[in-house]
Amino acid sequence: MNRVQRPRNALSIGVALIFSLPGSTFQTARAQAFTAAVVTSPAGASPLWRDRGNIGSLDLTFGAGGKEHQPTGKFTFVKEDMQGSAAKFEVVDDQGTKWKVKLGEETKSETAATRLLWAAGYFTDEDYYVAELRVDKMQKLHRGNKLVGAGGVVRGVRLERDIKGQKKSGTWSWYKTPMAGTKEMNGLKIMMALMNNWDLKEVNNAIYVEANGETHYAISDLGATFGKTGNYVTRSKSDLADYRGTKFIQKAKSERVDFHLNSRPLFLTVIDVPNYRMRTKMQGIVKDIPRAHAKWLGSLLGQLSGEQIRDCFRAAGYSTAEVDGFAKVVQGRIADLNKL
Question: Would you tell me which of 171, 206, 230, 272 could form a disulfide with 220, CB atoms 3.0–4.6 Å apart?
Answer without folding.
Answer: 206
